[in-house]
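Morning F.,

Quick status update on the modeling queue. The single chain you submitted on Monday has been processed. Sequence for confirmation:
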Amino acid sequence: ISNGATSAYDLNNLKSIWLNHEVTHTLGLVDLYAFTQSNSANRYDNLRYTGEFSYMGFSSFESNAPSLFAFERWNLGWISDLDGHSHILAGTIPNCISYDPTFAHEVAVIMQHGLYRMVEKQENVFYYLTLLNENYAMPGLTAGTEAQIIKGMYLLQPAAGAKKLPRVNLLGSGSILRESMAARELLAADWGVAANVWSCPSFNELARDGAEAERWNLLHPEQTPRVSFVAQQLAGHDGPVVASTDYMKSYADQIRAYLPAGRTYKVLGTDGFGRSDFRSKLREYFEINRHYIVVAALKALSEEGLVPVSTVTKAIQQYQLSADKTNPLNA
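Structure tokens below.
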């Protein structure tokens, strides 16, 4: 295989597998073979694992690779680089510490702490960070928030305005945190609602902290209950909570059980197949942009009786949102 189809036997057995493989070479992709630890002289067995999945690593006469890897399709420009699940997968690995930071100061704090744990303390952990390639202003580190960044949540922008105004808490991470920041301005200007904006570099760490507190409370029923970090952070800030991220809804939804009791919690996320388009269009398509955050906030406030439900309808109309468009999950 590595030297090409050299006989009628090869061509007869490889059939469309060989054709797919060689045509894709002309597009610029390279061979992708994953060898096992076997010392067998049968190279087809050694290559079999990768061969089941990609044209570029086909390995056996018995199977026909169905397609290219997602990375290969992305490399050819056939799909966008939307990643809606990697942090969910990272959360299933006990010693993987994952973050979706928005700003340079968050990355610096996380990197420093990660090196401290892995190098100085020699802990058996590894870090996964998703970084961004958009150009935007960096607000700089607020002294005293370092530990909160590591734990997964800190107050980035406190609510402004009179205390009598309806209040809401907006949570976000990565690039979509900036949509939460924009939603804060719209809520104040268009609807008279004050909003706290919370940067949540790691919903995974928040969920793990909450689960740890819950376990401790279960096994120590007669001692003072521990409170999750997310509940501690929100305790002094009234109002419903709205989270929006660039990931599937289950990523931010995993902290629901650890919020202060009785809080309404709305989660926006990118459930569904990826698309290739401008960022602004994709965020509108997946219903995670500033306008959908505003609508979710107003809906949560209406459910708590703090704004009329008609206000939600007005917001949908004002921002020209299509109430009857197909759910991205099913599109």
